Amino acid sequence: MNIKILVATHKQYIMPDDNDMYIPVQVGCDEVSERFGYQQDNEGDNISYKHRFYSDLSSLYWGWKNLDVDYLGTCHYRRYFVSNKAKKTKDPFFKYILSKEEAEELLLKCPVIVAKKRRYYIETIASHYSHTHNGKDLETAWEVVRDIYPEYLENFEKVLNRTWAHMFNTFIMRKKELDAYCEWMFTILFELEKRIDSSNYDEYESRVCGYIAEFLLDTWLEKNNIAYQEVKLKFMERRSLVKKYLNFLKNKFMKNQRVFPYEFKGDYDGTY
Can you tell me the mean pLDDT for 250-260? Predict the structure, then answer.
């Protein structure tokens, strides 16, 4: 199998030894002058100039449009798919990351690998988004799906109303499915970008298309009955879980963001 996994990064960092499968991609190259010797996301057909809206999806777009592969995957410079089997590597940082042999074994069983579900338990995907971002943008995304792909609206609402999702825009996907998914997803995001006024957004909020895309993966997989397997996605550096959960609670109960006063339903007419 010809499998490539894009490692999106905006800075120089240690990279996996397996250069046959992992391709480091510097994202946002149209926005900065510094280069790190990685594949640039502004070559060939690309959206590097839109990186501030799409975040690491500029790497996915580049791979989708410019690589001839059997399977294409995405991960981040500090977040990888991992297994329980340790490997001999130059850097112990990578000793548990998914190998090509492990990926091949999994992909022989189904066409897609996704990260294990991220669960929020005490709030839905929609309410969590509204506590951490501008909730109006999620309403706009709902309207875009309704207008362009109404047959997907029920699945999109289902994703938004539950308490878990396969997050971070990370997956490994057979090229046939990848072509269909990316065509569908980027059509939605390009229209969403047109309808959102992000002129006053800071760098964090400007990545709105990247954030919304996290909820489109499950929508597409479930609507099309695509079989997938979950694999653990590991944040490779140390971090404080206490701080993480405190921030989660702070966002839920204290952050002054637009909160949805309703559940997403097909009969919503745009008014409260």
Answer: 49
Could you tell me what percentage of the chain is helix, strand and coil, using 3-state DSSP and rounding each to the nearest 5?
Answer: 45, 15, 40
Q: Positive or negative, the Cα torsion across 208, 146, 169, 165?
A: positive
The answer to whether 61 and 43 have CB atoms below 8 angstroms apart is no
pLDDT value of residue 237: 84
**pLDDT band for position 18 (cuts 50, 70, 90):** confident
Q: What's the domain range around 13?
A: 3-253
CB atoms within 10 A of CB 10: 18
Nearest to 191 by CA among 172, 176, 212, 171: 212
pLDDT given at position 271? 29
Q: What is the pTM of this model?
A: 0.89
CB burial of 27-42 (b: ≥16 within 10 Å; e: otherwise) equals bbbbeeeeeeebbbbb
What distance in Å separates the CA atoms of residue 181 and residue 226, rounded to the nearest whole number? 11
Q: What integer best gives the mean pLDDT of the chain? A: 90
7 located within any domain:
yes
Output the domain CATH number for residue 202: 3.90.550
Number of compact structural domains in the chain:
1
Amino acid at 78: R
**Pairing mode, if any, of strands 233-235 and 79-81?**
antiparallel
Alpha carbons 74 and 106: distance in angstroms, whole number = 16
Picking from 194, 190, 185, the residue whose alpha carbon sits closest to that of residue 218 is 185
pLDDT mean over 172-178:
98
